[in-house]
# Entry
Amino acid sequence: MPPRFLLLADVAEILNISARQAYALVNSGELPAIRIGGRGQWRIEAAELETYIQRKYAETRAFVESRPADRSDVGE
# Structure
């Protein structure tokens, strides 16, 4: 059974971003997280990370669909 919660370092590795970028996502509220323990270490629920990833796919699709197609690179 996979772990329910991930460390910031795990999230950074999964998304192939720096730990600082992962922290910025959490700090901005874009990626929901909780703080646990006396040292207030961040934990991200795996389901929240998956929701974030799916949201980014949807945003990217909408962005691509809103742009006119550049047919100059399509071979005929």
About this structure: The helical segments are 8-15, 19-28, 46-66. The domain at 5-66 is CATH 1.10.1660 (Multidrug-efflux Transporter Regulator; Chain: A; Domain 2). The first strand starts at residue 5 and ends at 7. DSSP finds three helices and three strands in the chain.
